[in-house]
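Incident log, support desk, overnight shift.

02:14 A customer reports that sequence design results differ from what the structure should imply. Their input is reproduced verbatim below. On-call engineer (initials T.W.) acknowledged and began investigating.
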């Protein structure tokens, strides 16, 4: 008996580099950037418009649209670079807190379609302001059934079957 078709199909949104992607251009050293740390697979640099002092972005050198399009092999080098830079920021700047943010999609404020992680050192009275808690809490009725559905999906679906646009 054949296995059932996947609920969601896969789309490969990973490429070596895109000529017009601003982050791929930074990787190729075609545009200037204040590079903080670099490995064979990752690059950490200051954004053009930092939210706070020390705000750093970490990217994979391969063009990956967002964390939802990453492959398991992409996660370890990205995670290790994020940890190394985060520890450096903590030791050098001594912030009172830190945000780790990665947005996927326009609704989440992703402005460059190349996977990137923001490490944002935070101080109580910085210009960023509060991110959490939300101004209007989500009603329990909206969350009803979501936890069970997520648990089921996480336990049964493979990463290859993850593109909701094909749903």
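02:41 Re-run completed on a clean worker. Output:
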């Amino acid at each position: 008996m054949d296995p059932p078709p996947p609920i969601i199909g896969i789309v490969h949104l990973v490429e070596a580099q895109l000529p017009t992607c601003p982050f791929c251009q930074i990787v190729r050293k075609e545009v200037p950037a204040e590079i903080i740390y670099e490995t064979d697979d990752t690059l950490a640099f200051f954004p053009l418009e930092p939210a706070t002092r020390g705000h750093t972005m970490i990217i994979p050198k391969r063009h990956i649209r967002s964390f939802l399009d990453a492959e398991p092999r992409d996660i370890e080098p990205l995670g290790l670079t994020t940890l190394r830079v985060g520890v450096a920021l903590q030791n050098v700047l001594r912030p009172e807190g830190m945000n780790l943010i990665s947005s996927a999609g326009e609704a989440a404020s992703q402005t460059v379609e190349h996977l990137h992680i923001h490490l944002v050192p935070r101080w109580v009275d910085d210009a960023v302001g509060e991110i959490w808690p939300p101004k209007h809490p989500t009603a329990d009725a909206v969350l009803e059934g979501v936890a069970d559905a997520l648990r089921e999906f996480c336990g049964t679906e493979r990463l290859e079957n993850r593109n909701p646009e094909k749903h």
